Amino acid sequence: MKNNRLSLPDQKNFAYSYRLAYELAREQLGRVDIGKQCASAGARYDSTTRPALINLDYLNQSYRITLPDVDIKPAESTAEVPISDKILILHYMTLAKGVPLSGRLISFKELPDAGSYFPTFAKRAIEPLVRAFAEEPGRLIATARMLGGIKADYGDGAVTITAFPRVPVTLVLWRGDEEFPPRGSILFDSSISGYLMTYDIIVLCETIAWKLVKSLREEV
After folding, report:
1. CB 199 within 8 A of CB 8
2. 93-146, pLDDT tens digit by residue?
3. Which of 45, 73, 74, 42 is nearest to 61 (CA)?
4. Where are the chain's structural domains?
């Protein structure tokens, strides 16, 4: 069956591209069975309010999606939600299949159609983490607490962040030595393709990486 979901187009006019992707994602959410999708996504649906609400956790914050206008706001602040986050939230809500977590971790290269995307993924998500944290991996664990990160037992320092209720993301760093330079990896539960498309995963990991880098800079 043809998949008509939209990944962010690679165009010079990013503002237009993101706006188009957002509007299409809003339309798609309006066409699904909301109750079923909320159950599949681990979201909470309240149809008794006016407007009706979807409550969803994303990167350690709660968000409210109002229906039928499909507007997204933080549950506990008046801050504007970046359009890239809005698109990720809507893509997660419309794609979620309710696949149970397998407990088996995979790398980005094991995702569908990941081969051509890996250089972009490495540049936008892995390299910023390595530059910022690889010399002191313990700082990654401390900084990731702001995103709800929990220490994981991989490499010289690793942390698992629950990006969405059904999407754990594990960041791993190695300090390097005389033989190898510092390096990093990002691992996913093998069920992730039941919740996000490969390009969405790049955007999600880039978002996580730069939130952590920004937080580290603010600590200095």
Report:
1. yes
2. 999 999 999 999 999 999 988 988 999 999 999 999 999 999 899 899 999 999
3. 74
4. 14-95, 105-219
Answering whether pTM is above 0.85, one says: yes
Pull the structure tokens for residue 183. 């390096």
Residue 25: its H or E element: helix 14-29
Retrieve residue 194's tokens: 């039941």
The angle formed by the CA atoms of residues 203, 96 and 24, to the nearest 5 degrees, is: 60
**Structure-token match 């996000």, residue found:** 196
Q: In one letter, which amino acid is 34?
A: I
* Residues in CB range of 131: below 8 A, 6 or more apart: none
Q: Give yes or no for a cis peptide into 74 (omega within 30° of 0).
A: no
Q: Tell me: the pLDDT tens digits for 12-49?
A: 566 778 889 999 999 999 999 999 999 999 999 999 98
DSSP 8-class letter at 144? G
Indicate the helix (H) or strand (E) that contains 58: strand 52-58
In which region does residue 98 sit, left (phi positive, over 0), alpha (psi from -120 to 50) or beta (all else)?
Answer: left
Nearest C-alpha neighbor of 127 from the set 192, 220, 206, 188 = 206
Are 73 and 80 in contact, with CB atoms under 8 Å apart?
A: no
